[in-house]
Amino acid sequence: MYKQAKGWLASSPPRALTLGFVAIILVGAILLKLPISLKDGQSIRWIDALFTSVSATCVTGLVVVDTGTFFSVFGHWVILVLVQIGGVGFMTMGTLFALFLRRKVSLKERLILQESLNQNNLEGIIRLVRRVINYALTIELAGSLLFTLRFMLDMPPGRALYYGIFHGVSIFNNAGFDLFGDYRSMSNYISDPFVNILSIILIILGGLGFVVLADLVEYRRNRRLSLHSKVAICVTLLLFVVGAIVILLFEFTNEKTLGPLGTADKIFAALLHSMTPRSAGITTIDVSSLRQATQFLLVILMFIGVSPGSTGGGIKTTTFAVLIVAVLAVFRGREDVVLLRHTIERERVYKAITVTLFSFLIVVAGTMLLSVTENHTFMGVLFESTSAFATVGLSTGLTPELTDAGKLILILLMFMGRLGPFTLFYAVGPKHGRPLYRHAEGKIIIG
Amino acid sequence: MYKQAKGWLASSPPRALTLGFVAIILVGAILLKLPISLKDGQSIRWIDALFTSVSATCVTGLVVVDTGTFFSVFGHWVILVLVQIGGVGFMTMGTLFALFLRRKVSLKERLILQESLNQNNLEGIIRLVRRVINYALTIELAGSLLFTLRFMLDMPPGRALYYGIFHGVSIFNNAGFDLFGDYRSMSNYISDPFVNILSIILIILGGLGFVVLADLVEYRRNRRLSLHSKVAICVTLLLFVVGAIVILLFEFTNEKTLGPLGTADKIFAALLHSMTPRSAGITTIDVSSLRQATQFLLVILMFIGVSPGSTGGGIKTTTFAVLIVAVLAVFRGREDVVLLRHTIERERVYKAITVTLFSFLIVVAGTMLLSVTENHTFMGVLFESTSAFATVGLSTGLTPELTDAGKLILILLMFMGRLGPFTLFYAVGPKHGRPLYRHAEGKIIIG
Ligand SMILES: [K+]
Ligand SMILES: [K+]
């Protein structure tokens, strides 16, 4: 019986990955439901404990209760561990232990890892995982240290260390959780260049994905980047700059957002809010005060999201790039879809369409269901639905007021968004004898 | 000089088509600006005359002034002629005159027709055009006659004939214009089965496109339908039924829409409002009173639209079908995209993506611009922007209150929506030595 179940799981890495996620979420919910996780005098409903656990494990950051003022230090650590597991990848964590115990990593485990990191190349996975952990911990350590130094100006050293670690880890993992209370996120630091720049760098590093990070580190030796890395970096920077310019334009005179700030602060805030929808979720200004056009821009940036195999969500930068060049190829009457002088094979283009349409369908369905369950503006439900699916965590204020039905909808959106269409499909699909990654041979990663 | 200009036009049918459209719109605007087009004591601004002319020529039906109470009988006839030219196709009309004059139709003219009807088969175009005119006039005549008979119960015979012709032509051409005044559209006939059923049939016939109509007429002889016709008919009926069920579900208890109606009337209204977003634009209930989820459903139906080579807009039923089967193929790990046991060639799939993404981009851009120029809810601007681009004409009430900038945005959306991405691209593109229709060899029409 046990052996049968083991065989059933081993036969499908996506299924094991999905069930592993579910297990971690449930453990997280139970821990967060315990009184020890809460500040004195607080109590939490099961649905809210589940919502918080899903939001942390799926590194989203949407919150139904205020993290800073509602949970105890123990609760914060539970959230941070869930973020770390969900962000750096719980499969990577599992292998970390395996490596520490000098156990040989089995083919099955490597297949699971492959799914988790969205990597097509089976060889070198193990080496990659070791590096993933190294890079993630190094960046988190550096980020936490720098945040700690900065926070020491505002609070006692112990608290600064605690805040430094929490926000360093949370921001690198694109988790969107913060401890500053009252749903204010980082708004105290709107005029602080150090916090702004550090946050942006951590968001970018977390969102590029470990494959790109590894590629960047090896650049000194190889003097070349893979197509995948080039595309991920180009799209990331392009959207970052264009987004910041448009936000600056739309919000320059908005008295509730950028209006009262000096020119330099305006630029910092525009840069941060161009980056945070992809898919960090921290803010220094009130998202609900942004103009409608800006909120719509954020929805689009959230939907595009970050790069594959990263701590964030969305349809991914490479998917976006492939779609754009496919459209250009048709307009030019060309047979082949060409991206940075590489032909993209048909299968990859189809996969890009599939990811995009499927994601669009989920967001549309979520938005429509929230329209029915919540009494809120359309922009409000569209924004929250996209934020959940792309695991961003930005909110116009709807989430804390959600009905239970609404909470369940967002829980499903976050879960589906973090796992992605292919993992989900192969996890529940009756037949998966010919999973897509077996056909794959290209150099670029979609979804 | 004249010869050069003629050569320049002849070298690009899309360019000729686009400029022809512009010319007709300008003539229409000038005619509608004349005092003879207006009811006594009324005057119209140039921007409003232009808007009305574009709306009529692009068979949209969005109105900045109330058609029934603002324009004179002459003005109504101007609108109706523009609708007829824009709907049945001004190129087809041109050939109609050519045929009447027994002039030989040149290759150039046939190429223009080919573009206009989105037909890939150059041969048989002439025969098709003759049929197009026959079918269109026959259906319009039948529709007008039936409407006249019905309206004779409510008004004097002369007026009933006038109303019968106007609404028969307007509804078959998916134009969305009506004469009932006060922006009420057909709301007097909400409980009238005859008007509801007749309208739905005319909308469907107009929206299937002439290719499908011809195919249906020949069915008695051939006993088979082309893949294109099968797909167009299936998607049309499927969306019609599913849309009606969802509308019934969402609006059943809404006291401002279906709530007060009897069961049969509820069903009629649900059916009509499932069909009218694709892309007729007539209504019997107030669109702005619909629940948010229903309005969102209408936005989706409007975006999908009708079939290629018809009187309506949107990304088209066949495009939608190809995208769906492409996604299914990827999920199943299949190499080929299969639709009703026919493989769809890669080029067609890419064209479907292109049409969809381009349309999406235009609607998103329009929505964002309207968000800036208009002080209105997000659903309001999204709805109006989609309605304009898909040449539907449904409105939540924003259009009559538009700023001049907003009117210009909708004018551009209607124009781009009616011409479609490929005609537009080849009309303005510097190089079009390898236009797409030269490569085409498939059996299904996209866009
Ligand atoms: K996040
Ligand atoms: K219309």
UniProtKB/TrEMBL annotation, chains A, B:
Keywords: Cell membrane, Ion transport, Membrane, Potassium, Potassium transport, Transmembrane, Transmembrane helix, Transport. It is a multi-pass membrane protein. Its main location: membrane. It comes from the Bacteria. One of its GO terms (cellular component) is plasma membrane. It is found in: Cell membrane. The keyword Membrane applies. Pfam families: TrkH. GO terms for molecular function: potassium:chloride symporter activity. The chain crosses the membrane at residues 16-34, 46-65, 77-101, 194-219, 231-250, 298-331, 352-372, 408-428. NCBIfam families: 2a38. This is Trk family potassium uptake protein. It comes from Cohnella fermenti.
